[in-house]
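[SOLVED] Need 3D model of a four-part complex

Original post:
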Amino acid sequence: MSEPDTDRPAAPDAATADRPVRTLADLARIAGVSTGTVSRALAGKSVVKGDTRKKIEALAQQHGFRLNQVASNLRRQRTGVIGIAIPLGHDRRQQVSDAFFMTLLGYLADALTEKGYDLMLRRVIPDRDEDWLDRFIGSGMVDGVLVIGQSDQFARIEEVAGRYRPMVVWGNHQEGQRHCVVGSDNRLGGKQAAERLIAQGARRLAFLGDPTATEFAARYTGAKSVADAHDVPMITLPTHLAPDRMAKEVASHMDQHAGAIDGIFAATDILAMVCLAELAGRQIAVPDDIRVVGFDDLPLAEQTAPPLTTVRQDIRAGAFGMVDLLLRRLAGEETESLVMQPELVVRQSA
Amino acid sequence: MSEPDTDRPAAPDAATADRPVRTLADLARIAGVSTGTVSRALAGKSVVKGDTRKKIEALAQQHGFRLNQVASNLRRQRTGVIGIAIPLGHDRRQQVSDAFFMTLLGYLADALTEKGYDLMLRRVIPDRDEDWLDRFIGSGMVDGVLVIGQSDQFARIEEVAGRYRPMVVWGNHQEGQRHCVVGSDNRLGGKQAAERLIAQGARRLAFLGDPTATEFAARYTGAKSVADAHDVPMITLPTHLAPDRMAKEVASHMDQHAGAIDGIFAATDILAMVCLAELAGRQIAVPDDIRVVGFDDLPLAEQTAPPLTTVRQDIRAGAFGMVDLLLRRLAGEETESLVMQPELVVRQSA
DNA sequence: ACAATTTATGCAATCGTTTGCAAAAGTCGA
DNA sequence: TCGACTTTTGCAAACGATTGCATAAATTGT
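Solution:
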C-alpha cells in the first residue's frame, strides 16, 4: 500500500485492467481529492467545482466505478426499495404464479420502476411465520411495503397499520378499517355478476370459489344479496386456488351439481376458465344451459370459448394507484383508501 | 440518557410501549452486556453462555427488536438477495406481465424463498440504459443475478459473464457460449412441433411469432429444418408479444393467410390461444382445417377450446435448476449450462 | 493590494453490525 | 490454594458512503 508502483508489472494506467477501484476512497486517491469531494461530485451536488467534477466523473467512468448501494443505504437511511409481500395464507398451496397476482405484480413493477424504485419480492406463509410483516418492515431493507392480497391476515395488517405508515394493501375495503387499501368494490362486483346471471334467465345460482378469503367473501355477499332480493337460491362451491387441485375440485363440483344449477358466478377468471372447459367436456351449453360470469377480466378472458362475461377490475389502474398512495405516504401525507368501481364486461358466456 | 427513570411517566417496563430499542447498542445497554455479545447471542453462535443468550433473546423478543439488515449486509458483504433482471429489449412494449415470464418468476420465488433468499426484481430497458447489467451487479445489493430471457442482449451478457460468476440466464443455448444458461432445447422443440403438424396432415405451415428473439429463432429453425426435410413450405407471420398489439396482428395474419395454410406453429401458448380464438371467430375448424401447436404448456393450455397440443417446457424444473446452478456458482463451483428436453404434449388442436 | 465575501474542499463523525484479538472469568487437577 | 487451561465477554476496527462543520482557496469590491 505504501509503495504504489512497485509490486505490479506497472503499466501506467493499468488500473483499468484489474479494477482495484471499488470504493470512494480508491477513486479519491486516484483523483487526488478527498472521499467527501468524490461523493459530492458523483451525487451531482452543486458545491463541487466544474473541473473537479468532470475529472472525477471521467475517472469513475474509466475505471467502471459504482457506488456501493448498501453502504449508501445505511448512511442515508433509505434504500430506494419497496417491499412486496405476498401472503399465502388462506390457501397455502396457492402458487405465487396465480395469474391475477402476477398481472398486478407486473404493473407494480412498471409503476415503481418508473418512479425510480426497485422491488423486493417476498413470498410469505403467515402460519409458518407469525412475524412476517414486522420482519419485513423492521429489516431496514425497504422504504415501504405493498401487500398483495389480505389473505386471512386482515387482523395482523390492521395492527401493524397503527404504527407503520408507508404501507398500502391490495384487497377489500371494510367499514372503518385503518389500513390503506386499494381494490375494487368486490361487493358491488358480486352484485353486478348476480344481476347479469339473473337477467339472463338463471334461477339456480352457484358461487364457485373459496369464500373465506376476504375479497372473495365480499364478492359472495354482494351476489347473495341480489339473489336473495330476487328469491333465487345460491349455493357455494368452495374451491382451492392451487392450480393442481382446482381442476379436480371443479370437476367434482360439476359432477354433483351441474344438473341443478343454471348460473355460475366464479370468484376469478381462472376458475371460470376451468369451469368452462369442464362444462364443454360434458357437452353442457354455455350460456344456454348454464350461464357463467367471471371476475377480473384478465387478458385471456377474451379468448375463452365462449368469450367470458366477467366483472372487470382495472388492474393497471390499481397498481399505479397503490404506488401513488405509497409514495404520498412516504412523503408524510395521510391518504384515504382507493376503492375502484368494477365494471361488468358482457361477452358471450352470460 | 443519564437518568433512565426520570423523564418518562415511568412505568417500570415501559420501554415496551415506545420502542426505543432499535439497535444492538440499545439492547446491549438494557441487557448490561456489550454489543458484541448481543450480536453473537442473536446470531446463535455457540460462544455465548446459555443464560446470557436466553436473557438477550427474551429482551429482544419483548422489545420487538430486529436486526438492521442493511448494516448487517454491509459488514458481512453479503445480502441474501438475488437480483432478477428482466430485459425488455426485442420488444419494448412487452409487459413484464407476459404469462411465461410471470410463471417462471413465480417458481423462482418459490425456489429462492425455500433457500432463504429474497428476490430483487428489476425491469430493464437495455436500449435506454447501456449499463444495466453492470449497474445491477455492482450495486452491492445482490449476491447474484438471474436474468430472465436473453432478449437481444446476448453479446452484453456474454461479456459480463467473463468477469462475473454468480449469474445464470434463462434462454437459449448456443454453441460455445460462455454464460451459464438454463432453458429448453428450442430447436428440438421446434422440430417436434413441425413433425406433429406434418404427421397430422398439414402441408402448408406457418410460424407465428417474432423470429428475431433468440429463443424464438431457434424454435423457428428447428421447425423449418423438418419442413424442409419433408418438402413442406413454411411461412413466417411475425407478431409482437405486447398483449394489445398481438390480437390485432394475429387477426390481420389470419385475414391474409388463413386460407393458404393448414398448420400453425405458434411461438408461445399465448399466441396459440389468441390464434385459436381468432380461428373460432372465422368458423375455421381446428384441427380439421388448420392444425395448431403451441409452445410452453402453460396451465391454461389445457383449458382452451379445443385443448392445445403444445411443446412442453418444464418451467418449474427450469426455475429450480436456475436457482440450484446459481447457488453452486455462489459456492465457487464451475457449472455447465442446463438444456432441458422439451416434450410434445398431444391434446386436440393438432 | 488588502479585507470581506463567496466557493470548494477536507476532516471526521456517523449509519448499525460483525468479528479478530485480548482480557476477564470460570473450571479443573494436583 | 495456585497455576494451566477453557469459556465468555469486551474493545475497537472494519464495511463504504454521506454530511455538518471548519478551513483553504478563489473571487470581489474598494
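Edit: Chain A touches chain B through 52 residues (CB under 8 Å).
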